[in-house]
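tool=predict chain=A
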Amino acid sequence: MRTKVTLVLLFLNVALFFFIFKFERNWRTERASLEARRRVLGAEAADIRTLTVTSTAPGGSYRLNRVGENWQLTQPLDWPANPNAVSRIIGDLQILDHETSFAVADLKTNGQSLADYGLDQPKLVVTFTNTPDPSPAAANTPPSTVPLLTTTLRLGDTTKIGNRLYLLSPDGERIHVVPRALADSLAIPLNQLRADSLLTIPVYEARSLRIQNTTRVALRRDPATPRWTFDTPIVARANKDAIDLALGALGALRAKIFITENPPATLPSAAPSYRITVEGNNRRETLLLGERVPKSANDYYGQIEGRAALFTVTIPTGAKSLQETLDKAQENLREKRILDFDPRAVTAITLRAPNAPGQPTLTLQRLEASANSTSEAAWQIIRRATGDAAPQTLPADRAAVHRLLEQLNLLSALSFTSDAPTAADAENWGFARPEREITLTLAKLPTAAAPNAQPSTLNSQVALQLGLASQRDNNAYARVAGAAFVYTVNPDILRLETPTTPAAWRERTLREFPAGARITALKLTDLTTAKPLLDLTL
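tool=predict ok
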């Protein structure tokens, strides 16, 4: 019984495989052949390079060219095309199927002509070019010398029944009835066909930023680090976060209206009010802003360098806006933090008060620690009084030292007082005898390539001077040794954060008990009288 069942199942499997192999393949072949017969375009639509649409509707004609992988509008204006809109048009052409078709030669038999289908003077004419399929003989031919094949489609009237229209084949021998969706995608308004973005270099790619109006500001990014610096009008550190925000705001600008009639007397390319250049990886984009649009507070005439198209663009105004950044780029994009150091690299802090005679120099020194535990390292006070043979050392309050390092790292300019002060200016701001001199000794930290290495013994120093103006103005002034810049800072850095007395930095903990220790008795004694004040057993 089992043998019979097995043989029957085997026979049925063989029959099924034979059916699939013999008939199913033929059905699929016939279906593919039917779809191919319904397809209006073939290989000529596979690699479209240019596309021209000529329309009887006003403003409906345009031309697109493909440059590399990007599409460019060349008519009626020179501007990048919207990739989504172009992809829809190309896709509709490549998958265009007809519902039915008939030969043009049969029209005379029925007493008809192309005019009956609106094809003698078509409403839309689509012409596109593509590269031909490569042949072995042309395998070594440069792409620029390969001739392009031209294909033309003519779209006529809509059918009386159904949402379809008539289309004349490229060879002019057949009339196809195709969906109206093709005409809808080809008749896309110009404001949807063009890209509305102005500057397309993303923030992460930007390598340089130049802003020129009444002054010229140039910034560049260090290729090895994310740091930005000013090149002009001064050489100074720039604020990365502020620059990223500015680049993001520039990337968000959109062309509002393209001007084709009544342009301003002076084009932005001839006399720009602002010239904004962003450089990326082997490319550069420049936005030129000209005059303000009449009766508009925020709109400017604009052009992209190298393109003739004229448009209007809205520049946001107000506090911390793009307009303010452009007008005050030298100040708003500048790094306001005065000191540039890593608190983990500090091995010593020296505090001096030159304007307080007799006040000894105080040094906070970090004790030895492993490279990965510098935050847990102990600190000590080194006090060098005048006439002492040897310095005095005391344990320092680690938390207080860390607060000082944090305050110094975050110390920011309230304003940039002067970038080139004279000797008289420096004396007026209190730098002849500063209220405080703070010197940081820095060790080179381990790198990512050697994370377990010990800090380098080749130390560097950063010295900060803090002064008060000869005529007190509730401000303190700061400058870094070796740099000319003078900053206005909060005077609390003098009164609260940088005292030079050892008591301010001394360790408050008298004795640290080991983990798990218990206090069993407490006794207090007056040392002057040797009398016990308190004697408890717990």
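The chain has four domains: 1-34, 43-133+142-193, 203-332, 343-446+453-504. The first helix runs from residue 2 to 38.
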